[in-house]
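U., I forgot to send this yesterday:
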Amino acid sequence: MEAYRDQYAKLFNNGKNVVVLGVSVDPDTTLASWARDQQTPVLYASDIGQKVGKLYGAISGKVDDRSLFVIDPTGRIVKRMQPFNVLSQTAYDDLEAAVKQTLPAH
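Result:
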């Protein structure tokens, strides 16, 4: 998630017309502490029961995989990256392009 924080302005239009939500099986207190320590603009939601992960097909065994979904303002998934390769610059380039697709025209 540090890469999301460090590339936030570029990847996510600096938060303008974009909401970034990280979903994790970690408890909310752990996520809040981690987000505060990392000083990240990303929002987090706790999915201890894996309900969200199961709905999106983002579960591998008993853990969430590193799935990433770009969802447009109408709720349509415009990009699925399953798993999201956090070590690949190409993955971040693809993510940036998918987010740009969802932004209103200037």
